[in-house]
């Protein structure tokens, strides 16, 4: 490798950072702020009051991304952040915007012509773009986690502790042992929620985004119009989402669920594994979650493998195709 | 293709590029010698840009091969682009950058990049480098692209319509820059629709038509071809005979009323004494110009011989009509 090649990589990465900095800043601020606010909102709702109502919907629990029991714990409710539409939307926007840009975006703008007139191989160009896109995705996932962390440490919870009582057998009611008033206790949320619980959920979010990034880059390398690339990726996304939904809704169509990449995105399941086991439970690669399932770490690794495959296809297609003149 | 020995920096051998049924470039064979300014002429869709893009490795040829400094762009496009500075016909630059940052960026990108040189060209073109590319006019962006391309001291400079979108003053500056690049030993490939620019700057020119290399000629030969117009002073309308000894130099004589037009090919020296004996006045001698050749190629007509049959002692390259 020529020493100037490192300079080329550095300049390309700087260019891609500059190009995506506005989008990244907006999404990072959104995710950080949302993570914080979402945690704060957890304290506003006492889910215990909804327990009776939720019990009536036990039959529909399979449609929820989380077990209902998890809704009655702070860590479970904080963990729901990873399935919030805003989080998914921000991740999808970054991945599709950046992934679709690499070839068809640069071709459409006409800037690929000047960039590739420099002594840089197409592979280096694509990989430099991937470095920035993947780095941005990691930073966005960490921004969300950081926002949640700030929220967890800044939020104070207040719980009402009733006076000691005893449950009367057969009659099923509580008999107070004293006539003291209930006591309000305040404590930081970090006493109940360990932020490390969500490390595997953050990894799942990254894996989800990485696959989308690879898919978008793959479609982009085949195309010359960015709008068409985005349309194609969104089509795949929506079809996969419908397959996932149908697979969950009908037993006879359950095979569709396993054919959807959404089936590999299980951040709340990881939270449950931590709650039921320990912090390392989601990182297991030997014990399946349930019979017929993959080990917990298998799902994000599968997404990453699919993403790498897509990037591989993008690399081969881009290096072999003709590059048309800008229109 | 060991080019250093042949003296050709660029070589194309039966280069063909097809898109399905459409042939963008067909069986194109041409060479560009080191140190010359080589012009590419042809109407839109003639295959000029396809030829250039194939040379740079953007397009893979359907058949045939090409090389720059002995390097095949299909095999090693990166090494080829180390030898080339390329200005696209429609140069579009990253819009989020400012002019100064963009020149720095491209100077760093190319191993032979010269930041000072790029800034000097930008200064010569009176370019405001503090603006973002997004807020520059088309002409300003073209100037900026020229400053980028003229920075690296590569052996080959390929300019695809470099003066498009530029005002006449800047056009002249750009042509001066091209000439000065040649003076430093660089080889220049120059594509343009403006015939006067080709005449002014190029040593040789290739005409492309519908993907075919229609004609190739040395400008030196073209400049030896003249058109003499004059008014007859005698009252007769009889034809002026062409002396046998000048038959090779006189292409033809036509007369309309009392105006005559004599076409000459080759050196004017043998013709001038004969002209002096003719009963004519208001004599005007003008070079034939590229326009006439271009029109002939464009219309698919047979091209006239530019040099007299017998005057082969000159070292200048011969034109070769391939129509």
Automatic annotation (TrEMBL), chain A:
Keywords: Membrane, Transmembrane, Transmembrane helix. The chain crosses the membrane at residues 21-41, 125-148, 202-222, 229-247, 297-318. GO terms for cellular component: plasma membrane. GO terms for molecular function: ABC-type transporter activity. This is Putative membrane protein. It comes from Rhodopirellula europaea 6C.
UniProtKB/TrEMBL annotation, chain B:
InterPro entries: AAA+_ATPase, ABC_transporter-like_ATP-bd, P-loop_NTPase. It comes from the Bacteria. GO terms for molecular function: ATP binding; ATP hydrolysis activity. Keywords: ATP-binding, Nucleotide-binding, Transport. The keyword Cell membrane does not apply. It holds the Pfam family ABC_tran. SUPFAM superfamilies: P-loop containing nucleoside triphosphate hydrolases. Belongs to the ABC transporter superfamily. This is ABC transporter ATP-binding protein. It comes from Rhodopirellula europaea 6C.
């Amino acid at each position: 490798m020529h020493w100037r090649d490192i300079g080329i990589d550095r300049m390309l990465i700087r260019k891609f950072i500059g190009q995506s900095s506005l989008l990244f800043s907006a999404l990072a601020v959104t995710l950080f702020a949302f993570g914080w606010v979402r945690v704060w909102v957890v304290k506003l709702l006492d889910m215990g009051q909804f327990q009776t109502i939720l019990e009536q919907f036990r039959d529909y629990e399979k449609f929820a991304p989380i077990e209902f029991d998890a809704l009655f714990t702070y860590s479970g409710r904080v963990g729901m952040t990873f399935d919030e539409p805003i989080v998914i939307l921000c991740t999808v926007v970054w991945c599709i915007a950046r992934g679709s840009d690499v070839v068809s975006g640069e071709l459409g703008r006409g800037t690929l012509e000047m960039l590739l007139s420099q002594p840089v191989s197409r592979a280096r160009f694509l990989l430099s773009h991937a470095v920035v896109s993947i780095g941005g995705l990691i930073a966005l996932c960490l921004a969300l986690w950081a926002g949640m962390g700030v929220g967890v440490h800044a939020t104070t919870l207040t719980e009402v502790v009733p006076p000691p009582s005893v449950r009367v057998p057969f009659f099923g009611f509580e008999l107070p042992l004293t006539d003291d008033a209930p006591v309000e206790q305040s404590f930081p949320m970090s006493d109940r929620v360990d932020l490390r619980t969500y490390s595997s959920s953050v990894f799942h979010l990254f894996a989800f985004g990485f696959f989308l990034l690879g898919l978008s880059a793959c479609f982009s390398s085949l195309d010359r119009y960015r709008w068409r690339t985005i349309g194609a990726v969104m089509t795949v996304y929506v079809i996969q989402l419908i397959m996932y939904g149908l697979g969950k809704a009908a037993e006879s169509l359950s095979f569709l669920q396993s054919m959807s990449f959404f089936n590999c995105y299980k951040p709340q399941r990881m939270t449950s594994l931590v709650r039921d086991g320990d912090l390392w439970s989601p990182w297991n690669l030997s014990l399946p979650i349930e019979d017929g399932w993959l080990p917990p770490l298998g799902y994000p690794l599968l997404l990453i493998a699919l993403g790498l495959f897509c990037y591989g296809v993008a690399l081969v297609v881009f290096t072999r195709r003709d590059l048309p003149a800008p229109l | 293709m060991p080019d250093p020995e042949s003296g050709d920096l660029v070589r194309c051998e039966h280069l063909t590029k097809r898109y399905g049924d459409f042939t963008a470039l067909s069986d194109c064979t041409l060479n560009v010698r080191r140190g010359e300014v080589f012009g590419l002429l042809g109407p839109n869709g003639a295959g000029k840009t396809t030829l250039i893009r194939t040379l740079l490795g953007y397009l893979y040829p359907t058949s045939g091969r090409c090389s720059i400094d002995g390097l095949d762009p299909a095999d090693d496009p990166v090494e080829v682009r180390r030898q080339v500075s390329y200005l696209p016909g429609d140069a579009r630059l990253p819009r989020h950058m400012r002019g100064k940052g963009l020149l720095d960026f491209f100077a760093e990108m190319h191993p032979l990049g010269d930041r000072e040189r790029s800034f000097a060209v930008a200064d010569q073109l009176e370019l405001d480098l503090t603006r973002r590319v997004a807020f520059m006019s088309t002409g300003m962006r073209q100037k900026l692209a020229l400053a980028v391309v003229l920075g690296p001291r590569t052996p080959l400079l390929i300019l695809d319509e470099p003066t498009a979108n530029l005002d006449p003053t800047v056009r002249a500056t750009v042509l001066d820059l091209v000439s000065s690049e040649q003076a430093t030993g660089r080889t220049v490939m120059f594509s343009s629709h403006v015939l006067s620019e080709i005449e002014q700057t190029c040593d040789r020119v290739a005409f492309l038509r519908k993907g075919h290399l229609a004609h190739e000629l040395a400008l030196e030969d073209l400049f030896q071809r003249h058109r003499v117009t004059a008014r007859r002073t005698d009252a007769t309308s009889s034809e002026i005979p062409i002396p046998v000894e000048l038959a090779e130099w006189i292409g033809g004589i036509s007369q309309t009323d009392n105006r005559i037009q004599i076409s000459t090919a080759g050196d004017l020296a043998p013709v001038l004494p004969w002209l002096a004996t003719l009963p004519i006045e208001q004599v005007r001698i003008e070079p034939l110009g590229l326009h006439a050749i271009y029109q002939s190629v464009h219309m698919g007509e047979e091209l006239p011989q530019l040099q007299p049959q017998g005057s082969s002692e000159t070292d200048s390259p011969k034109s070769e009509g391939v129509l």
